[in-house]
Write a structure and sequence with these properties.
It is a single chain. By secondary structure, the chain is α+β, with helices and mostly antiparallel strands. It is 43% helix and 20% strand. It has 2 domains: 5-94, Phosphorylase Kinase, domain 1, CATH 3.30.200; 100-225, Transferase(Phosphotransferase) domain 1 (Transferase(Phosphotransferase), domain 1), CATH 1.10.510. The chain has helices at 9-16, 51-54, 57-70, 102-107, 113-127, 165-176, 183-188, 190-201, 205-225, and strands at 5-6, 20-25, 28-33, 39-43, 78-84, 89-94, 100-101, 130-132, 140-142, 148-150, 156-158. The strands form 3 sheets. It has a 6-stranded mixed β-sheet, with helices on both faces. It has a 3-stranded antiparallel β-sheet with strand order 7-9-10. The chain has a two-stranded antiparallel sheet with strand order 8-11.
Length: 227
């Protein structure tokens, strides 16, 4: 069972005294790189009344990471979940997941084969019944051993069977509508990426022919929103 342990302000300050900020937003630090190489990720409630009060986001993160690894998908190994009342934050401490994000790989000028790798991984997630809501190039890692991994995993849904066509298509909305995180993939071309994904999905021609229009509908919606 996963639960939060209380963390005092003095313990928090001791842990982060020599840490490096990896991500910061207007409300404060979101991600720390601790001196021992582990990651501390902090979560705040965005609204006074939300499901995060009943089931904190850090516990979802830890649960989802464990369930992803059970499906042979690389994800952070959580060492600790905590609540620091003094800073009004829940948090997780986990081992650094080695690898480079696809956002960084694309920015470095990687060749087009990287898009096929990303599309193939998305097809694998869907085949394994994983709906990763925050899917975008900044949250998918290419690990040193060639495997793929996910970070920022507090919002994942799991099914005991492959995702249906509607869910597969809906996941593309998140992939391509993440604005700043999706620029490189959109520049590559929505249709081109979808074709790579369908090649990886395989199955009957009838299945892919019925799936493609459902996915492409989200591209048209994005174009209307941005014209």
């Amino acid at each position: 069972m996963i639960f939060n342990r209380p963390m005092s302000l003095s313990t928090y300050e001791e842990l982060t005294a020599d840490a490096r900020v990896l991500e910061q937003q207007s409300f404060g630090v979101k991600v720390w790189l601790l001196p021992d190489g582990r990651i501390m990720k902090l979560f705040r409630l965005k609204r006074r009344w939300s499901s995060g009060q009943l089931y904190p986001y850090n516990l979802r993160f830890a649960r989802n990471a464990r369930r992803l690894r059970a499906r042979e998908i690389a994800a952070p190994k959580v060492r600790e979940t905590f609540h620091c009342a003094a800073i009004d934050r829940h948090g997780v401490i986990y081992d650094l997941l080695e690898g480079k994000t696809f956002r960084d790989l694309f920015a470095a000028g990687g060749d087009d084969s990287l898009y096929a790798v990303l599309a193939g991984f998305l097809a694998e997630l869907h085949r394994k019944g994983v709906f990763f809501r925050s899917v975008h190039p900044g949250n998918v890692l290419l690990c040193p051993d060639g495997s793929m991994g996910l970070i920022d995993v507090q919002d994942v849904r799991f099914r005991p069977w492959p995702l249906n066509r509607a869910s597969r298509a809906r996941n593309f909305r998140h992939l391509f509508n993440s604005d700043e995180q999706s620029l490189e993939v959109r520049a590559f071309g929505f249709g081109r990426f979808v074709d790579l994904y369908l090649d990886a999905v395989g199955g009957s021609q009838t299945y892919t022919e019925r799936l493609k229009p459902k996915i492409m509908a989200y591209d048209r919606a994005w174009e209307r929103r941005n014209t």
